[in-house]
Write a structure and sequence with these properties.
Blueprint: H1 2-6, H2 10-13, H3 20-28, H4 39-44, H5 51-56, H6 66-102, E1 113-117, E2 130-140, E3 147-152, E4 159-162, E5 166-168, H7 169-179, H8 183-186, H9 190-195
Antiparallel strand pairs: 1-2, 1-5, 2-3, 3-4
Length: 247
């Protein structure tokens, strides 16, 4: 259903609840890739009557007797369920072969410590990819298969896990060692200081920052202060007539 909602237009995604009925109808009446049958047919044993059937003028199936209809309905359901089961078994074989081909086997041995893939039910967009607990490899199911039996360090409950869901714990430890700087290069150890003469004094100086990595200096630029403009004096008229009245 998420894939169907993802296929909607951007404007339709903002109002996705309005499109749920038509998407559910399309999902229930579309043959599944694994079973080969539509979910509606596996549940009810008959094809639904679609609006396009009325538009194209397809006649409705003729009604028969109740006993005959029930007998035919049971036969259709039994045959559909058996074929769906056979198709599922074939899909499992194909999926297993694809998973084994993608699994990169790095030769896990018995006793190796591994992390288990965190398979969360429901929404898992922000969940951790691997579980924090460490497991140990107890045995390999078969030489030609990428399936191992693992058990937690604090217990004996074994479970079969595919190789693609296992992460060697040594890889994560090596990555942490590479990311963590060595303490011998930053601060001398006590044994080294004792072996040196007593006249030497160790001074730890901060590492200078390269000029290329230094960011540009930030200078605050203030707007110029407003300059008060002089107020002009009232202009006196130079005409003589303006000082004399009409009368």
């Amino acid at each position: 259903m998420h894939n169907l909602l993802r296929s909607l237009h951007h404007e339709q995604k903002t109002r996705w609840p309005l499109h749920l009925p038509e998407l559910v109808q399309a999902y229930n009446n579309t043959p599944h890739a694994s079973t080969g049958f539509a979910p509606h047919f596996l549940l009810f044993g008959q094809q639904p009557r679609l609006p396009v059937d009325d538009m194209l003028g397809f006649p409705a199936p003729a009604a028969s007797g109740t006993i005959d209809w029930v007998r035919q309905h049971c036969l259709r359901l039994t045959e559909a369920h058996q074929k769906a089961f056979d198709h599922l078994q074939q899909a499992v074989v194909k999926r297993t072969a694809l998973t084994d081909r993608r699994a990169a086997d790095h030769g896990l041995n018995v006793g190796d410590h591994v992390y288990l893939r965190n398979r969360v039910l429901g929404r898992n967009k922000i969940q951790d990819y691997w579980k924090p607990d460490i497991y140990r490899v107890t045995c390999r199911v078969a030489e030609h298969q990428h399936v191992y039996l693992v058990a937690p360090l604090a217990g004996d409950a074994e479970r079969a896990v595919n190789r693609k869901d296992l992460l060697p714990a040594s890889e994560t430890l090596d990555n942490q060692d590479e990311d963590t700087p060595s303490s011998a290069t930053s601060v001398p150890s006590e044994t080294d200081s004792e072996s040196d003469s007593d006249d030497e004094l160790w001074i730890t100086l901060p590492r200078p920052r390269p000029a290329a990595l230094a960011g540009p200096a930030v200078v605050a630029v203030l707007p110029p202060a407003p300059v008060a403009q002089p107020v002009p004096a009232p202009r006196r008229s130079q005409r003589i007539a303006c000082m004399q009245g009409n009368n």
